[in-house]
Amino acid sequence: MEQIAEKVITQIKKHPQIEPLLTTIAQKYLRVETLQTQHSDSADFHNVSVWELRAALEAAFQAGTQLGASVTAHMDNFVATETDRLNAHSD
Q: Do the beta carbons of residue 25 and residue 60 sit within 8 Å?
C-alpha cells in the first residue's frame, strides 16, 4: 500500500494545474512573480507579512480542496488499477 500512496502523490504532483495555480497564488497574495529559482537573493527571498502568508495558505487550501474533488474519481481508478496490478504480481 505504501507503493500505491507514493504513486498517488507523484500523480498529484504531475497534475497540470498545480504549477499555474501555485504561481497565481504567489503572485496574487505574496507579490512573488515566479516560483522558479532565479539564483539571486533579491529575487529568491521575499519579505511577507503573516496576513499575506495566511491569505495565500487559505487560497492554496481552498484550491486544493476544489482540485482534489475534481480528480477524486481519477485517483480512485488509479488506486484500484495499481492495487489489482500489485495483487496479481504477489500471487
A: yes
